[in-house]
Input
Amino acid sequence: MSDDRASHSRNTLEAVQRLEKIILDTLDFRQVIQKICDSVLNELYFVDLSYRLVVLALENSDHTTLQIVALSKTPEAEKAIQAANIPLAQIQIPLAQTQNIMIRTWRDQSMQLTPNWSEVFHPALTVETATNAQTAAGIQASILVPIVAKNKSLGVLLFGVAKPSEMITDQEKDLIQGFTDIVGLAVENARLYSTLDATGKQLSQANEQLKELDRLKDEFVSAAAHALRSPMTAIKGYISMVLEGDGGEVASKAKEFLQGAYEGNDRLIRLVNHMLDISRIESGRLIFNIADVQLEDVIQSEVSGLKILADQKGLSLNYEKPPTPLPIVSVDPDRLREVINNLVGNAIKFTQQGGITIKHEMSGGFVVTHIIDTGPGISPADIANLFQKFTQARVNIGKSGGSGLGLYVSKLIIKEFHGDITLKSQVGQGSTFSFSIPFAQKTVK
Output
């Protein structure tokens, strides 16, 4: 290789590397396309001062035209725009214009040379206007190179040169081709980034709207629940008074109807309370009065009340209280009682024979409480969704599953205590609900 050729190859490589650093360093699409036109022209000045302007045309989003999107900032470019007397963004060449040399360059992915801008800008510009613009810019020949990325044509780069086509050397063509390969990568990267950025902003806006809708939903649920709870509590009180004979003797059949109304109203009150709890917990507005408690004392007090329900169904309710005190746990006692009532109450409700056993074990710094029943069991499909809102297990015992909120509320409460609720069950063999609560900090060794 001669010294001249070696020097040219080195200069070409250095120019390509400089251009790569400049245009691949930016991801903003508008900045990239302008940098392409300006930087490519600057690097070409190192090779030949006859390069006067660069035009970048890209396929539009509708895939119908090649549209001029950027032009190098040079005096020659300004003169061309003034002579053409048309805004840059309005110059579009339909892809169907297969006789247009720019379209052929894009379609065939091959470099083209032309001495006439009328071949380049028709039909956007008339032959006369294109010729006047070319003359004003002092352009004698144009090199058109396809911009390709991943074998797909993205657009065309036009290089306006102040010398005839026959004076453009193969070395210059090689350099321009090297530049254009980088341009394809830069355009593709910038488009992808712009798409991702726009999508990210849309998702962010949608997320904010969802948060606002969620807040409004919580406010509505809270207001509705408060409005419902007061009259339902009053109804419960009045029905209770009638059942107890405060208004006079009530016929047995009427008592049966009133008892059904009382129980239905009681279920509605529990549903409203659950809805309020969910709204407050999810929005962080529910205040937990955390205290260090002896877990077995809380459970023992609740079991005493729940045993009446179990006895009414002929079920056993056994609490295997440990012989030695359990480690202290930090909980809100009232909220913990709510969890115990939900879990044990459900076990009593869905168990038809046998009974329920409550016992503890310690595991990895947690007290784990197991509530084991001899009920119908729960299928794997139901277990997967059982702790979601308004979800009930399908149990074939002729009873309603309730509101579908109790387990969801219970899980939220236990999570506030830094614990968790789990379920193991098999159809026909009963269920075991377990909740874990960590030892209070002062008991951790």
Q: What stands out?
A: The longest helix spans residues 170-243. Residues 5-9, 396-401 have pLDDT under 50 and may be disordered. Residues 209-282 form one domain. Residues 42 and 63 are 31 Å apart (CA to CA).
